[in-house]
Amino acid sequence: MVGHYYNAKRYDARRSIGYLVRHSSAIITCKIEALFAEKDLTFIQYVILMNLRDELAVTCADLCGVMRYDSGAITRVIDQLEKRKLLKRQRSTTDRRVVKLAITPHGKKVVESLIPVVVQQYNEWFTDFSKEETDTLIMLLTKFNTKISDKKPEK
């Protein structure tokens, strides 16, 4: 982009990328949590298991970073999931200080049974979007997240 998009003299918080992304995230979380009210998992439990299933995280520290959650809160949820045999802790064979998390086959079955609930909601939100608009939104958010992330993009 040539020049700057935002101008300090005409800045409107309602058009701020930070506000819009955070506001969208808060609404999404609230509405998806409501869908899980009558389910066997809470939304946070679902998110943790999905992160493990998709290998976006392998330790409690990874989960805290990906989810932006406090380690104490995540540890309590992990304890609950381990007690229910939905995940297991495994001490690293190369570094005994590291405890890796792994979704169990039972945990994978449970979390995958709930994916249709989330997918249906996402699809409802995108009913007024074309496939191309949806693809563009996802591509742009992915590009933006890569740009603002401390991580280098994967090759």
Briefly characterize the structure.
This protein has 155 residues and is mostly helical. 58% of the residues lie in helices and 6% in strands.
Task: Write a structural description.
- This protein is mainly α.
- It has a domain at 41-148: Winged helix-like DNA-binding domain superfamily/Winged helix DNA-binding domain (Arc Repressor Mutant, subunit A, Orthogonal Bundle).
- It contains six helices and two strands; from the N terminus they run H-H-H-H-E-E-H-H.
- It has helices spanning 17-35, 43-53, 60-67, 71-83, 105-125, 131-148; strands spanning 87-91, 99-103.
- The chain has a two-stranded antiparallel sheet.
- Strand 1 and strand 2 (99-103) form a beta hairpin.
- It is globular.
- The mean pLDDT is 92.
> Over the alpha carbons, how many angstroms does the gyration radius reach?
18 Å
As a percent range, the share of strand residues is 5-15%
Q: What is the CATH class of one domain?
A: Mainly Alpha
Number of helices: 6
N-to-C span: 24 Å
CATH superfamily of one domain: Winged helix-like DNA-binding domain superfamily/Winged helix DNA-binding domain
What is the structural class?
mainly alpha
Query: What sort of overall outline do the alpha carbons produce when their principal axes are compared?
Result: globular
Regions with pLDDT < 50 over 5+ consecutive residues?
none
Query: How many strands, what sense, and barrel or not for the largest sheet?
Result: 2 strands, antiparallel
The overall pLDDT average reads 92
CATH topology of one domain: Arc Repressor Mutant, subunit A
How much helicity do the residues have? 55-70%
Number of strands: 2
Largest sheet, spatial ordering of strands: 1-2
Q: What letter string, H or E per element, gives the SSE order?
A: HHHHEEHH
Q: Judging by the overall fold, what is the CATH architecture of one domain?
A: Orthogonal Bundle
